[in-house]
Amino acid sequence: MNLRNVAKYALSCLAAGITVCAFGIIGALLPQNSRLWVSLIVAVAVLLAVWLAVNLICAARISGKYRSMNPRQAYEYGNRVKEQTERDYLSAERAVHASLTRAYIALAALVAAVGLIVMFVSALRAESIWLTLTAIAAIYILTTCYSVLFPKDYVGLPDRQYILNEGEYPTITSIVRRAAQKAGCNRSVVIAIHGDGTGIYETRSKVVLSLNPAECAMLTADELYAVFLHEFAHVVNVDTSRSRRLISADCAGRVRLKTTSALLSRRSPRRSYILLKSMLRCTRRFPRATTKCSPTKE
Questions:
Q1: Residue 153: which residues within 8 A CB-CB, separation 6 or more?
Q2: pTM for this model (two decimals)
Q3: In this structure, are residues 260 and 144 in contact, taking their beta carbons and an 8 Å threshold?
């Protein structure tokens, strides 16, 4: 059990409980007007249902678009997005930030809507059983919302047998160390073998660089150095850290909040990807390699 994740979940529950108590107290201070409060409860509940339905439909359409692509189409689509980003990276960066801002606004609206329902039920002076059930449901939903503010550590260090040490693999570790220093990444780096492709991610205390053996075998030392520069640029530009906030809150049975950004970016699904920022930032900070490298997984 990850105690850090337990502490984050406890913080989310505490924040949800405080929010529910605050709205409940406000509702208890409101005057009695059963017809008004019931009407408002129904109105907010309908808005929430519509929001959820539209959200799920838009998310299904976007995910369906990518699932229908074969590997070649996905690769060509990624190249088109990269070219568009490189032509005007400032506009692409603003679009990503705008998408995230809209997603957080929608999240705040969801918290407010749930709080209003609690407040109106409290204003009804309903029986304690109904107020209790409403409070439990509200805490259940709000815990998911606040989990976005306290993201869990979904990935940890790889198994020991997959980690490359400097004694056995001096060449690859030397290239990695040189690329990390050049990029300005001063954190502790773990190098590990991974079958899905070359990429990088962060844990609580370390940066993990995942390498695909087949890809490494096809590249020269200079090409590997260029690839590693690109990967460490993600860490330096805080892309790997920021992307964790887009991971859906891992609470069983709760609403997946990653669909929020999909809904709010329905005009252009690619704008909902924070990794778009890493591509444009990396292009701006490091010169493009003169040799071609095999595609790597982001």
A1: 2, 4, 5, 203, 204
A2: 0.59
A3: no
Model pLDDT, residue 14 = 93
* Structural domains of the chain, ranges and CATH numbers in brackets: 3-153+247-267 (no CATH), 160-244+276-285 (3.30.2010.10)
Q: How many C-beta neighbours within 10 Å does residue 30 have?
A: 15
The answer on pLDDT for 188 being more than 70 is yes
Residue indicated by tokens 């069983």: 252
Where is average pLDDT lowest: 101-110, 242-251, 279-288?
279-288
Q: Which of 248, 247, 215, 246 is nearest to 230 (CA)?
A: 215
Distance CA 280, CA 106 (A): 26
Confidence at residue 243, expressed as pLDDT on a 0 to 100 scale: 62
Taking CB atoms within 8 Å and a gap of at least 24, the contacts of 238-245 are 239/274, 239/275, 239/277, 239/278, 239/281, 240/200, 240/201, 240/202, 240/207, 241/202, 242/274, 242/277, 243/274, 243/275, 244/151, 244/154, 244/202, 245/148, 245/151
Task: Identify the helix (H) or strand (E) that includes residue 208.
Answer: strand 207-211
Q: Is the pLDDT of residue 119 over 90?
A: yes
